[in-house]
Amino acid sequence: MNVAVIGSGTMGNGIAHVFAQHGFSVALIDISQPALDRALGTITKNLDRQVAKAALTEEDKAATLGRLRTFTSLEAGVAGVGLVVEAATENVDLKLQIFRDLDQYAPADAILASNTSSISITKIAAVTKRPQQVIGMHFMNPVPVMKLVEVIRGYATSDAVTEQVMDLSRQLGKTPTEVNDYPGFVANRILMPMINEAIITLFEGVAGVEEIDTVMKLGMAHPMGPLQLADFIGLDVCLAILRVLHEGLGNPKYAPCPLLVNMVMAGRLGAKSGEGFYQYTAGSKELVVAERFRR
Length: 295
Known about the structure:
Blueprint (H helix, E strand, L loop, with lengths): L1 E5 L3 H12 L3 E5 L3 H20 L5 H9 L1 E4 L2 H4 L5 E4 L5 H14 L5 E4 L6 H5 L8 E6 L8 E6 L5 H13 L3 E6 L6 H17 L5 H12 L5 H8 L1 H15 L8 H8 L12 E2 L8 E2 L6
Helix pairs in contact: 1-2, 8-10, 8-11
């Protein structure tokens, strides 16, 4: 099966990497050729890391890169594919437009999947004439490492499409988990309130950044504290998901902490902006609490 991946950012290049590594021909699509070039560079570095760990051979790396093609045209990129995985920015209007275009250009029998972490698959499917073929494939970051794929059934998603996507996920060496289409699905419905509560705990002065993360790492065996994880995900993404939960479920417990809202408005988005709850310096792996939150 030929696969198209839309969006060459962190998630898109990771999804393309994994499909290509497991023998699929992959069309990686983005509106920007420089972004596509950066994505290929990232994939190459990640493959080199796998080679260094003896997880892949140089021949495997070359074969993987040989299965990747890049496109700036959606119409050209999706021609002849059996599966499209959309991994564009988590913006509902953008995703709906992409799926309208996919419905027009992708082969009639192609499965249209979204890597959305919170937006309704039913809503996305409703803008197409093939809602039974629209499904969620929520990969975790970093895609080449993380084993889970949340497979989200929209209201009209067929049994056959669901089973095919579950099987494709297994072919990638992943563990697919089928969930139904409600705000936040499972992963973010549980994770984001935890992150939000950690931010509220900081906001209310219960403890500092490092102390909150230490409690969760050492007390709950989490590999990364919730504030560091929020920085890694992107505070803007966390805020967007919390707003989806708050609006979709109508429960005030999902209301985002005012500190999170202010940090996003101020451009303190976490690792990608250089500062969130921690500050990030290129080339350094040292975890340093942002100056604003130092005691």
